Amino acid sequence: MTAELVRGQNHPLSEVRLEIRISAGTPLIAAATLGDEHGRVRDTEGVVHPGAPVLPGLEVSRQAAAGHRLAVDLDAVPAAVHRVAVLLALPATAAGPARFGAVAAPFVAVTGVDGGELASYTITGLDAETAVIALELYRRQDAWKVRAVGQGYAGGLAELLADQALPQAQHLARTVDEAVARGLARSVASPPPRSADGGRSRHAAAPAHGPDQGDPAPSQAAPGTMPTQPAAPYGSHASSPSGQPASLSPHPEGGAPQPPYPGGPGTPDPTAGPQPPAPAGSPIDYSHPRRQTAAPPPPAPTAPAAAPGRPAQPVAGDATGWSMEERLYNQVWGMFEDLARTMAAYRSAVDFADSRREKELDQVLSDPRSRLGGHGDAAREAAHARHAQLVDQARAVLDRDLAQLTAESEVVEPALPPAYAGWDNPVWHGYRVPMEIPMAVRLGDLNLPETPSLRIPMLVRLPLERGLWIDSGRPVQSDDAFTDEEELRRLAMETAVVHTARLLAAHPAGEFGVHIVDPAGSAARALDPLVRTGVLAGPPASGAAGVADVLGRLTQRVDLVQMAVRGGAPDALPPGFDTSGQLLIVNDFPHGFDDRAVTQLRYLADEGPAAGVHLMMVADREDAAAYGPLLDPLWRSLLRLTPVPDDHLADPWVGHAWTYEPPRVPPGSQVLQHVLTQVATARRDWNG
User: Fold this and answer.
1) What angle do CA 527, 531, 536 make, to 5 degrees?
2) How far apart are CA 412 and CA 425, in angstroms?
3) How many C-beta neighbours within 10 Å does residue 151 have?
4) Which residues contact 458 (CB under 8 A, 6 or more apart)?
5) Are 466 and 677 a contacting pair, CB within 8 Å?
6) Exposure check for the chain: N or C terminus, fewer CB within 10 A?
7) In 3D, which of 291, 294, 290, 240 has the Cα closest to residue 260?
8) CB-based contacts of 300, cutoff 8 Å, min separation 6
């Protein structure tokens, strides 16, 4: 489970091959230092930075960027290194921000090679600093840990490096600035390619490297030398087209090249275009024998051709992926990213127009001669006219992108499988219990204030990596329609039932069990669809004894799985042990919970997902205020969802506050009853 660190907190690392992902709202410099047990850096050879991006076990980006991916192999780090400090700094350019306090808080995540997040840290509390030690990887008793540092320096990289006892701190800081200045023009990754009519293309998905770690621009080779090959991504090996490592072997006995055998590597390809001649005087022909230099034929169109001046017609499933389900999943997230990016560009353009207008008006007011009279009025009118022109241009681009996204949404939504589809989708009428667990499930929709009608499905990967919290408290921005606390609690429990039905429908028969704790029995009416169809593992538990029984059984289950996995014997579980996933729904917390039950609940929230036990809380945080900060880790470990629309989902990538809309079953629809009946029937057939 991901550990969300605060400043000074540490967390053990279960892997040695890591990736450190950094995201910020502005281009940053990423670097790292290799220090001894006291954190001292002996010389410049212990600093990896854009000018020297590779050291044993460590590779950083070669330029400033708003997003970085640093590759780390702790086994390859020299034995004398005890601390690896990850550094962030603002580029020394006049166009960029002058301090961290003027930008969004940077977010740093430590992930494994499979992309699973191990620890994350949002660097808050910065103001005048221009460089910061984000986090630190350090050895402790032959094991590695990560610590959230967040130590900022107003003097920039020079002051930071000097604080780590580096003698050449000033010189190295200048070297880093010069290296960044040379590649700053390529520091921000370009958006997906657009056609002349505004269409988007996500067909050619690039590997997930940093903006400068993929295909660097070719360097200018000196006369008479062979151009160097671009560096391969960290951990990969350069290979030939046949899949074998590329190499150049001399001819036997230094003689002339032997004639190629038919079909061999020296045989010209009759379908290839003309080949470039070998360099004069060179004994080896470096041209690839099968490289095609002529333009390839155009690919077969996957969508109807668009008329000139009109955007291309979108197609459902045009993203990358091995299956239609994966392609639709990637397409939905591509739509989410496109909406986030285009809205961020629009807001940035409006902010620029506002700041430019204010600057021009300040200039008019700062000159006493232009404050009054016709000249001042004309200058103010011109400033407002330029502001309106810039805003109109930005809005035109936004409207074009939104129209394209809306057209794509209208095509994608009807094509979604049941796990991704809304409850009003006709695909549910032909629902059958699946044979395999899907990639993700839909837990609602997301939209932005400027585009309330354009909703992007909120897809969450399976199995769930964290529990769910259905907040039954009053939203921060509530209106008169939801002032009744009892009405909110009823809606929260009904929302939990809808989410539970979705999770049951997404799993094969017998692969997902549901337990309910309802101490006071207040949710009997909302739970009726689950109880009546018989999809629960047992009747809802009530009273303190029922709470203790369910929590005790699930806690024991997690303990057994953990002991088996940690002992390297996952097959040594007791006979008849149910290995299916389990969901615990808790209503009206903390009513009916004593201190032991609260401790068990926190344990299930932290350790349960890794053992196949997931938690769904239906609670108002204010009801548990008596516990004080004791339960803060519990709330942070859960994904907060609301029974009414609320803009509580923050996006650190672009700084948006997404409005979450919970799923709703159409009034009068029997789709929920139909789905739960299918699940119950398949479960009885599977058990029988």
Assistant:
1) 105
2) 12
3) 17
4) 442, 443, 444, 445, 446, 660
5) no
6) C
7) 290
8) none
Give yes or no for a contact between 264 and 248, defined as CB atoms under 8 angstroms apart: no
Tell me how far the alpha carbon of residue 79 is from its chain's centroid: 33
Q: What are 146's strand-pairing partners?
A: 11, 137
Show Cβ contacts of residue 625 under 8 Å, excluding neighbours closer than 6 positions. none
Backbone angles phi, psi at 92, to 5 degrees: -85, 70
Distance of CA 263 to the CA centre of its chain: 46
Parallel/antiparallel/unpaired status of strands 107-112 and 117-122: antiparallel
CA 69 to chain centre: 12
How far does Cα 149 stand from its chain's mean position? 22
Tell me: cis bond preceding 590? Omega within 30 of 0 counts: yes
215: its two tokens: 């295909």
Query: Among positive and negative, which fits the CA dihedral 363, 367, 371, 373?
Result: negative
Residue 641's CB is within 10 A of a number of other CB atoms, namely 24
Residues in CB range of 607: below 8 A, 6 or more apart: 1, 558, 562
* Helical axes 324-366 vs 374-412, angle rounded to 10°: 170
pLDDT at 214: 37
* Burial (0-12, 13-18, 19+ Cβ within 10 Å), 222: exposed
Q: Each residue of 406-443: pLDDT tens digit?
A: 999 999 999 999 999 999 999 998 899 999 999 999 99
Q: How far apart are CA 532 and CA 509, in angstroms?
A: 18
Two tokens, residue 530:
């689950």
pLDDT tens digits along 138-174: 998 788 999 999 999 999 999 999 998 888 889 999 8
Q: What amino acid is encoded at 559 in this protein?
A: D
Instruction: Pull the structure tokens for residue 498.
Output: 């809808």
Query: Predicted confidence band at 483 (pLDDT cuts at 50, 70, 90)?
Result: low
Which pLDDT value is given to residue 294?
Answer: 46
Long-range CB pairs of 173-176, under 8 A, 24+ apart, other chains included = 175/49, 175/51, 176/29, 176/31, 176/49, 176/50, 176/51, 176/89
pLDDT in tens, 85-104: 999 999 887 667 888 888 88
Tokens 């207040």, residue located? 522
Phi-psi category of 625—alpha, beta or left, where left has phi over 0 and alpha has psi -120 to 50?
alpha
